[in-house]
């Protein structure tokens, strides 16, 4: 580790920096709340510790530290008894408020019989916990917005996926400003890209074209996919809602995509995606479900593409940027607000910052590259060789066409 | 994890003050090219912005995001045309 960016002979030195010693203050989604409603306690490794999630008899979902304050038993291996979670070691009963309610073999509960209880939010089918290293409740103004489609019959149910990623979670947050990786890693084609950071939110506004070189030609009689418009906002450090519209010839298709995570420890996190799709009669009875399923696969593929990069890359605190890159440093300045005490949040971390990228040069370069890929494919097909797309992983939701089952 | 400065502002054009011709809001702005724009707002500028005050929240879960002030955008373009705000890559051909 050096303190200068340039070492001998003008060689740029990578500064990896240290991963933060604490976990972000904010709401973190633990996944579909339904998953926790089976009457059993669930183990969740998060924020450097072990949590137990359980539904009490009153229907509420509760989150406590998993380790029993008595002799350290694991409550997530215990049993739900009424409104309490019972420790498998000595049957101590803990309520969702973190207080020990009863010790069946004792005359009374001792003083100080209180464990850490996490503030929860059960909204739109998702369970959230509030993490604050200072122990304060969520302040006004950081609420997770409602997702109307999630509670509506006019939309599909959530399709949810989660995967453990072994790196610090800043890598996934960096993607919000990283326009060029959408072309090179995810085979999409951004043509407009803007970021807005304000308060506890960070937004990415992106418009894109479909990539004809990254998918088979659209089938005859099906409307082709033209492109997409996406407004994706991080509401706090870890929960992104993407309002996403796919534009087809003659119709638009609205989706809401969730990209969220919670840290397991400093060097791993659980990455989750969720998707709902608006039902549209033009999609047919099962069309929206099928679309959701395909999009869900597509997003999973996208995560795999990111993970392959993350697995092999280094953490870098001093990225070297060109003018066609997004505002990485300003994003990290925004992100830092979640890692300092609330009293130490500086104005520049939360003051509005806008960055509109000039996509002229990227679009020129990428159009050329797409044309070259198509020409190569055509030549290979003519020569009888395997046509091949740019990659075996290059799957786009453009394959999903309205008009019924494929 | 202390945030570092964007080196592009040190090696190229820095952010410079621009005033909105509609409301007088003072922001810091930068144009790396005619199509690129960075805008750093302050709390005072936010309070002064008329469009922002008039903006109704849009639909959907991200409707709270105010995408841009058009008057400020026009003011920044005008400042660039007037030469008050240098445009770093003024070549026009992107090279």
UniProtKB/TrEMBL annotation, chain A:
Classification via Gene3D superfamilies: Naphthalene 1,2-dioxygenase Alpha Subunit, Chain A, domain 1, Rieske [2Fe-2S] iron-sulphur domain
Renumbered residue ranges of the record's region Disordered: 208-227, 377-406
Necessary cofactors: Fe cation
UniProt entry keywords in alphabetical sequence: 2Fe-2S, Iron, Iron-sulfur, Lipid degradation, Lipid metabolism, Metal-binding, Oxidoreductase, Steroid metabolism
Annotated ranges, domain Rieske: 27-129
PANTHER family in UniProt: 3-KETOSTEROID-9-ALPHA-MONOOXYGENASE, OXYGENASE COMPONENT, IRON-SULFUR DOMAIN CONTAINING PROTEIN
Subunit-level organization: Homotrimer. The two-component system 3-ketosteroid-9-alpha-monooxygenase is composed of an oxygenase component KshA and a reductase component KshB.
The protein's name: Rieske-type oxygenase
Organism: Planomonospora alba
UniProtKB/TrEMBL annotation, chain B:
Superkingdom, natural source: Bacteria
Name the UniProt record assigns to this protein: Ferredoxin
Source organism (scientific name): Planomonospora alba
């Amino acid at each position: 580790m050096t303190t200068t960016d340039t070492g001998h002979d003008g060689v740029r030195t990578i500064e990896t920096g240290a991963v933060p010693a604490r976990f972000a203050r904010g709401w973190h989604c633990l996944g579909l709340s339904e998953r926790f409603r089976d009457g059993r306690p669930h183990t969740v490794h998060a924020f450097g510790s072990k949590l137990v999630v359980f539904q009490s008899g009153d229907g509420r979902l509760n989150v406590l530290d998993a380790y029993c304050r008595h002799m350290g038993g694991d409550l997530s291996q215990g049993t739900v008894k009424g409104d309490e979670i019972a420790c498998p070691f000595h049957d101590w009963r803990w309520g969702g408020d973190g207080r020990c309610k009863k010790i069946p073999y004792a005359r009374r509960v001792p003083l100080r019989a209180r464990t850490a209880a996490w503030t929860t939010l059960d909204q739109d089918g998702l369970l959230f916990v509030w993490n604050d290293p200072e122990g304060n409740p969520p302040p006004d103004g950081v609420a997770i917005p409602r997702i109307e489609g999630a509670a509506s019959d006019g939309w599909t149910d959530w399709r949810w996926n989660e995967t453990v990623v072994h790196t610090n979670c800043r890598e996934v947050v960096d993607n919000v400003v990283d326009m060029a990786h959408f072309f090179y890693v995810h085979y999409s084609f951004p043509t407009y890209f803007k970021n807005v950071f304000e308060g506890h939110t960070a937004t990415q506004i992106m418009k894109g074209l479909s990539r004809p070189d990254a998918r088979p030609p659209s089938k005859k009689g099906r409307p082709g996919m033209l492109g997409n418009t996406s407004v994706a906002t991080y509401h706090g450090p870890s929960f992104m809602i993407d309002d996403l519209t796919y534009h087809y010839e003659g119709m638009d298709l609205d989706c809401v995509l969730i990209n969220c995570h919670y840290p397991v420890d400093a060097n791993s996190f659980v990455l989750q995606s969720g998707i709902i799709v608006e039902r549209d009669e033009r999609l047919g009875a099962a069309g929206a479900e099928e679309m959701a399923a395909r999009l869900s696969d597509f997003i999973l593929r996208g995560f795999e593409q990111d993970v392959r990069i993350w697995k092999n890359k280094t953490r870098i605190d001093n990225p070297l940027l060109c003018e066609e890159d997004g505002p990485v440093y300003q994003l990290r300045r925004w992100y830092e607000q979640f890692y300092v005490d609330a009293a130490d949040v500086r104005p520049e971390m939360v003051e509005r910052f806008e960055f509109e990228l000039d996509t002229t040069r990227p679009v020129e370069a990428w159009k050329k590259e797409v044309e070259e890929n198509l020409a190569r494919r055509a030549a290979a097909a003519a020569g009888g060789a395997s046509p091949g797309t740019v990659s075996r992983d290059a799957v786009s939701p453009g394959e999903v066409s309205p008009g019924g089952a494929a | 994890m202390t945030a570092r400065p964007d080196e592009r502002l040190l090696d190229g054009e820095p952010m410079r003050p621009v005033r909105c011709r509609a409301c007088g809001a003072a922001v810091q702005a930068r144009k790396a090219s005619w199509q690129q724009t960075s805008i750093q707002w302050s709390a005072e500028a936010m309070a002064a912005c008329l469009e922002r005050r008039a903006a109704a929240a849009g639909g959907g879960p991200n409707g709270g995001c105010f995408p841009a002030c058009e008057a400020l955008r026009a003011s920044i373009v005008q400042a660039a045309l007037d030469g008050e705000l240098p445009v770093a890559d003024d070549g026009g051909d992107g090279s």
